[in-house]
Amino acid sequence: MRYIALFESMTGAVVLDCIVDRENERLIFVVKQGEMGLAIGRGGENINRVRSMIDKKIEVVEYSSDASEFISNSFQPASIKKVKIVKKDNRNLAYVEVAQKDKGLVIGKNGRNIQKVKMLANRHHNIDDILVI
């Protein structure tokens, strides 16, 4: 709760969710739709100020009520071609199509990026798994 209060007071952006990822030593903030620019600030000044204050890596994701758009936002800065959500065997699956050059960025070192997106998609849109194609 204190991370949310600090982030909101220093950036002016509304935080909908905050995940403390101890394994990867980072904080992941989900901000209200349309407030990504406010969270980052001109030239990254807001996010850098928060980062130096709490001395942790910070990642910010813009929320969307549309699951496909939210997943796409979660993978930024990688460019996502298409996200298709299907129901298979009572599970919600998201197929994410990316350019070959962005596959490494989408997966991340030791799978940390795909792990983050799977966690967020499950928490906010009940997506059980994400498959990168």
Question: Which features does this protein show?
Answer:
three-stranded mixed β-sheet, GMP Synthetase, Chain A, domain 3, 6 helices, alpha/beta, 133 residues
Could you characterize the architecture of this molecule?
The chain has helices at 2-11, 36-40, 45-54, 67-74, 103-107, 112-125, and strands at 15-21, 26-31, 57-62, 80-88, 91-98, 129-132. With 133 residues, it is α/β, with parallel strands linked by helices. It folds into 2 domains: 2-62, K homology (KH) domain (GMP Synthetase, Chain A, domain 3), CATH 3.30.300.20; 67-132, 2-Layer Sandwich (GMP Synthetase, Chain A, domain 3). A hairpin with a 4-residue loop joins strand 1 (15-21) and strand 2 (26-31). It is globular and about 45 Å long. The model has no long low-confidence stretch (mean pLDDT 95).
Output the CATH homologous superfamily of the largest domain: K homology (KH) domain
Strand order of the largest sheet: 1-2-3
Percentage of residues in strands: 25-35%
**Which CATH class of the largest domain is shown?**
Alpha Beta
Helix content percent band: 25-40%
Average pLDDT? 95
Architecture of the largest domain in CATH? 2-Layer Sandwich
Secondary-structure element order, N to C: HEEHHEHEEHHE
Tell me the CATH topology of the largest domain. GMP Synthetase, Chain A, domain 3
Write down the domain tally. 2
End-to-end span in angstroms? 36 Å
The computed structural class is alpha/beta
What count of helical segments does DSSP give? Answer: 6
